[in-house]
Amino acid sequence: MKFFIFFLSVASIYAQNSSSIINSAVEKDKDKFVAIFKDLHQNPELGFNETRTAGIVAKELKAYGYEVTEGIAKTGVAGVLKNGEGPIVMYRAIWTPMRLRNLQIYHTRAPQ
Question: What is the pTM of this model?
Answer without folding.
Answer: 0.67
